[in-house]
Amino acid sequence: MALKAFHVSDVPNLDQVPQSASFSLYSTRFSKGLELNRAASFRIPKFLVIGHRGHGMNLLQSSDSRMKAIKENSILSFNSAAKFPIDFIEFDVQVTKDDCPVIFHDDFILSEENGTVFEKRVAELCLAEFLRYGPQREAGKDGKCLLRKTKDGKIVKWNVEIDDSLCTLEEAFHKVEPSLGFNIELKFDDNIVYQQDHLTHVLQVILQVVFEFAKDRPIIFSSFQPDAAQLVRKLQNNYPVFFLTNGGTELCYDIRRNSLEEAIKVCLEGGLQGIVSETKGVFRNPGAVPKIKESKLSLLTYGKLNNVPEAVYMQHLMGIDGVIVDFLQEISQAVADMIKPAKAVNAEEGLSEGNGETEAKSKLQFSQQELSFLLKLIPELIQH
Q1: Helix 328-338 to helix 309-318 angle, to the nearest 10 degrees?
Q2: By its UniProt entry, which Gene3D superfamilies does this protein fall under (predicted)?
Q3: Residue 16: in which H helix or E strand, if any?
Q4: Distance between CA 31 and CA 165 in Å, rounded?
Q5: Are 127 and 102 spatial neighbours (Cβ–Cβ below 8 Å)?
Q6: What is the pLDDT of residues 157-209, one digit of tens each?
Q7: Which CATH number goes with the domain that contains 301?
Q8: Distance from C-alpha of 111 to C-alpha of 161, rounded to nearest angstrom
Q9: CA distance 192 to 317
Q10: DSSP type of residue 161
Q11: Domain-embedded: residue 193
């Protein structure tokens, strides 16, 4: 891949939205739909809970069995997530060599043959090659052994309690519960600076599938690749686009990825609708939250801390719009308990809806241990 940067302003407007497209993202899971129009106004009407890679990511070296329960980024994982009261699932989309959008997180796919480990870039495989890895949908057919490299460089077998086949984006549209929204992460290699024509081609291939099969399903696009995020916003006006950032928790070569302030600039320059930040990035820089809101941007978060109910509730209090989580059962239940609709709270407290003197409360009653955790959380994060 040639290393050549570009300015998204140089790209012509390639708006491919069908004339009949609706500009309201509505789901039966929402009391109100997510609203987007061509002027880029966007509103999230409730605190969103989003399933990370479906039912949760696979962390194969973890001692927590929940991190190895169901194969991530699979149809089974997505439909398992749909059983919980969540709003969206998040998953990663790449495009194969023969122009098919597939769902897979890692840049490389690893396998073993005759004791030798092979590593191949997903974007350099054709669809048929990609689908040969892991369990096969055809009865009696065995797939290639699927391995994974951990963060510390170890190569382990991709063993989960309930396995499933690899899948395409089109397949997800056909087979996943239709009321469940899709947060489609546009996946690119962090170590490559992509040419303009390559990014444009990849995004057009993905958009073609989305436009053809999304129907009324709510969609949010997101990407760590700032040029891709701005470009997909320029290529279509139908769905909101969020910029993904680690919020300064790790240093990147591209300075646009190194702080929430830079993320705000990326969004405002490209007309994006929001930011998805690593949770620690927000807790370390809470002053960025009002700046994001003043810029009329939405804010979602991801990261391990989103599996801690108290950390999720703190974000709700801070005005964050939603969280991407792995432990769906625990967090969706905690959110339901912590963030009660005003009508339900009024009913519990014997208040009438017309009583303007008393504002409904939705705050959780914390134990002393929980309060201690909340008070210590932000300082500990800043130190580490």
Answers
A1: 50
A2: Phosphatidylinositol (PI) phosphodiesterase (3.20.20.190)
A3: none
A4: 34
A5: yes
A6: 999 999 999 999 999 999 999 999 999 999 999 999 899 999 999 999 999 99
A7: 3.20.20.190
A8: 19
A9: 38
A10: S
A11: yes
Answer yes or no: is 24 within a domain: no
203 compared with 371, residue with greater pLDDT: 203
| Residue 142 neighbours by CB under 8 Å, 6+ apart | 136
Closest CA to 182 of 217, 224, 229, 233: 217
Residue matched to tokens 């499933």: 164
How many whole angstroms separate alpha carbon 248 and alpha carbon 246? 6
Angle at the Cα of 222 (from 187 to 298), degrees rounded to 5? 160
**Who's near 383: CB < 8 A, 6+ residues apart?**
none
Answer whether residue 26 is part of any domain.
Answer: no
Coil/strand/helix, residue 66: helix
- Which among 381, 246, 384, 359 has a CA at the least distance from the CA of 314? 381
Specify the amino acid at residue 279.
T
Q: What is the residue-averaged pLDDT of the chain?
A: 85
Query: Would you say 252 and 263 are in contact if contact means Cβ atoms under 8 Å apart?
Result: no
Helix or strand run (H / E) with residue 229: helix 226-235
Q: Which pLDDT belongs to residue 374?
A: 61
Q: Is residue 380 part of a domain?
A: no
Q: Report residue 135 as tokens.
A: 């369990």
Q: For residues 73 and 75, give the distance between their C-alpha atoms in angstroms, rounded to a whole number.
A: 7
Amino acid, single-letter form, for residue 288: A
- Gap between the Cα atoms of 173 and 161, Å rounded: 25
Q: Quick check: 29 pLDDT over 70?
A: no
How many structural domains does the chain have?
1
Per-residue pLDDT of 288-300, as tens digits, reads 999 999 999 999 9
Q: For residue 314, what are the domain limits? A: 39-339
